[in-house]
Amino acid sequence: MKNKEVFLYKHSINNADFTVWLGFPGNYAFSMSSLGYLWLFKKIDESDIANAERICSDTVGANPCDVNLFGFSFSFDMDFLTIFSMLEKYNIPLRAKDRKGFPLIFAGGPVVNANPEPYKVFFDFFLIGDGEDLNIKAVNLCRENKDKSKDEILRMLSQIEGIYVPKYPHKVKKITKKLDECVYTPILSENSFFKDTFIIEMSRGCANRCGFCLASYLNLPLRCVPYDELIKAIDLGIEKTGRIALLGAQISAHPHFHEVCKYIYDKIQSGKNIEMSVSSLRVDAVTDDVVKTLVSAGQKNSTLAIEAGSERLRKVINKNITEEQILNAVKIARRNGLKGLKLYGMTGLPTETYDDLNEIIRLAKRIKSENKGFDISFGFSSFVPKPNTPFQWFGREATKSVEDKNNYLKKELHKLGITAHFSSVKWDYWQAVLSRADEALNDFVEEVYRQGGKLGAFKAAAKKFGINSDYYALENYEFDKPLPWDFIEMKPGKEFLISENKRLINNSEVS
Question: For 170-191, what is each residue's pLDDT tens digit?
Answer without folding.
Answer: 999 999 999 889 999 999 998 9
